[in-house]
Amino acid sequence: MTIKIVSVNKNNVFEWRNAVRRVFGDISKESDVERLVKDRLMIQINDWTENNNNQDMNRLIAAYDYKSKSIVGTGGADKYKITTPGGNSLSMAGIAYMGTAPTHKRKGIFRMMMNELHLQAKNRGDSLAGLWASQSLLYSRFGYGLGTLREDWTINTKNTKLLKNTDKNIDLEFVNKDKALSEIPKIYDAARKKQNGFTDRTQGYFNYLFYEDAETRHNKSGMSGLFFVVAYREKKPIGYVFYNINKESGIAHEDDKGELVVQELVSLDSESNIALWNFIFGVELVEKISINRRGSNDPLYFLLENPRMLNRNTIDGLWVRIIDPKKFLEGRIYNSEGNFCIELTGQNQNDIEGVYSFETDGKNTKVQESNSKPDITMRPSDLSSCYFGGITAMELYKSNNIICENQKKLEEFSRIFSVTNTPWCNTDF
Q: Is 291 in the same domain as 366?
């Protein structure tokens, strides 16, 4: 076979990025590639050599065809920590940039790249891998289970309003981008430490997220530039929202049928959440609000006078794959004490197949390989789905994905893995 997996560095990153974006129907600009390397990857491109032993600089891979002398497949793993139920965090390989050239389909290239990324994650000591799937169920054959759900919303603002008023102790302030880059990361980091399923973000990530050039910022016909609003209580930042206006939707015209697109809204408490939504609903000349990647337990539905005006499209969010079962299972707080033996089998994960004894008092958990008869048998992806609590063990049992002959053990397993803080991941990668 003429195709080999190679590392990405400054010599091939522009070809690699063009290959990534071609899969998604885009053509990259050189400046966009430089910005990706600098901000999202946080790599100094001049120091990025082929023989660099720094693991953080070897997270991107390419499938290189020596016959055509071109990159025909792309992939990578961003560096993240993800918050688990109870507030602990685990190292996660954020699988991204995946694509195979249409000229080289059905040659096993995608599997080669996934296997390499998973091996790298294991060698780094990551507990799990996570990804956002461009095609639902594409990754289940690699052991990925549905870790979180997401909701994409549209809201008709002309026929509903919020039932709660803004707390008089909360102040809202438009801020410029420099202040947003100072205040918003602090708010986000405080929120992610409490929110099951949130990932950490670097300052570079926010630079990348907030980026605008002169054309996009001052667009007179399409999407507007970004507007940033921060909520304060006693001068302490406690929430934020940033958004665009879809100028093609008719804003500033007599029909008042503009569309406001919320890019992200994060709050540290219910009062700041209500204040920010009151602000959004108060923007004039808007009839429609859109926002994606909301948590499935978001309270806005119960805050609306006419909740039917909130159109909720629920789809898959973060997909999760176990890399190290021991670190994975010992890395969260559980709902109660209990013990049982779990058998993991299938999905081509020979390195983690087997029976594991599991014992926890809720806060402290011990997991080790065992020769005992399993109480529960499941695929690795099913355990990944149960782990964050968004999918219940009973749901998987009723769909015949979990095998358990002892009803009490099934109830114990379900009770231990249940959560009060429903998982939500809003960092797309």
A: no
Q: Is 82 part of any domain?
A: yes
Distance CA 373, CA 121 (A): 30
Establish if 42 belongs to a structural domain. yes
With CA atoms as reference, report the closest residue to 77 among 61, 53, 93. Answer: 93
Mean pLDDT value across residues 266-275: 98
Closest to 147 (Cα-Cα) out of 90, 98, 74: 90
CA 303 to CA 164: how far, in whole Å? 7
Same domain, 122 and 171: no
**Segment 360-374, tens digit of pLDDT:** 999 999 999 999 999
pLDDT band at 253 (very low <50, low <70, confident <90, very high): low
Determine the structural domain holding residue 190 and report its residue range: 151-314
84 with 331: CB under 8 angstroms?
yes
Q: Which helix (H) or strand (E) holds 31?
A: helix 30-35
Q: Across residues 27-37, what is the average pLDDT?
A: 91
